[in-house]
Amino acid sequence: MHDKYMSKLSPTVDFWAGMYLVIIAVLSVLGNAAVLVSTARRLAFLKAPELLTVNLAVTDIGMALSMYPLSIASAFNHAWIGGDVSCLYYGLMGMIFSITSIMTLAVMGTVRYLVTGSPPKTGIKFQRRTISIVISGIWLYAGLWALFPLLGWGSYGPEPFGLACSIDWTGYGQSVNHSTFIMTLSILCTFLPCLVVFFTYFGIAWKLHRAYQSIQSKDFQCGNVEKKITLMAVLISLGFFIAWTPYVAVSFWSMFHPQEQDHMTPFITLLPCLFAKSSTVYNPFIYFIFQRTLWHELPQIQRLLFCCSHQVSSPAKEAKLEGKRVKDETCVGLMGISGKQSGSEIISLG
């Protein structure tokens, strides 16, 4: 066994890190499996944007099943199991699932921003086939980036604490090859998707705020509903970014301070990695919490958002909307929700 694959942590820390990963793995598998089962039960009524929520659950459960067992076994073994081959596998899986997750979040935000505020009949609509093609493109994009280190651009290597593998961040200043790969990867697969998520979700929150402000009737009393919808979108996005920010920060620090990395204790480098793995647990809990609370308020949301779209309609359309659509369809333009949809479909906002 090479020294680089030996744990730099004490056996006690390795044991508790392994126990932590066991808990994270179990919660991730159970939570995301529940999301997949829930969506499968209403597959016939599943809206196109909800496929992105399903894809996010698939990436989370895929990471838990394909990566965590190897980390857990290595932690209990006090050394990385499998050597170079398993290290490449682990780095490859980590790249695929992490890039797929962040790109899915970026596409989610973009789709929901385009749909929010669109008229029910003439606004932007996304078909299942379109979203399926986009999801396929996301997986291909992530797979391409994951293959680059195997083809010679960049490389995978063990983490400083010795119990995980990822991109070799410390090689940034060692060659142009590593430098160009890491910077390009950081821009195209981290910073730009984060900016997209940030601006689209805040754009959604602003549109919702404007819509609620435009309604003067006190009968709706929907301020609390507005807060819940905005909070749900923010939590789903921030849960991922908060989990991964410490890891990215430490990785970038090691990029620009390779000589000082030896002075950083292995335990400090372990914590961000463990915290990042918790990102696979957040979404299922957010999904079911808001599914339960928003289900009871769905009629109120529908009335409110219908009136928002109703106010910007022409007088002729207003008459038709009042006479027919309110009774038969109760269209809700801002969220793309029809009266026939279940409350859980609101979760696709995230």
Automatic annotation (TrEMBL):
InterPro entries, sorted: GPCR_opsins, GPCR_Rhodpsn, GPCR_Rhodpsn_7TM, Retinal_BS
Transmembrane found in the keyword field: yes
CDD domains: 7tmA_Opsin5_neuropsin (cd15074)
GO MF: G protein-coupled receptor activity; photoreceptor activity
Main subcellular location of this protein, as a coarse class: membrane
Transmembrane segment boundaries: 15-39, 51-76, 88-111, 131-153, 181-208, 229-247, 267-290
Keyword terms, alphabetized: Chromophore, G-protein coupled receptor, Membrane, Photoreceptor protein, Receptor, Retinal protein, Sensory transduction, Transducer, Transmembrane, Transmembrane helix
A cellular component annotation (GO) from this entry: membrane
Record flagged with keyword ATP-binding: no
Domain G-protein coupled receptors family 1 profile: 31-287
GO biological process, one term: phototransduction
Compartment(s): Membrane
Membrane-topology descriptor: Multi-pass membrane protein
Pfam families named in the record: 7tm_1
PANTHER family registered for this protein in UniProt: OPSIN
Name of the protein: G-protein coupled receptors family 1 profile domain-containing protein
Organism, scientific name: Anabas testudineus (Climbing perch)
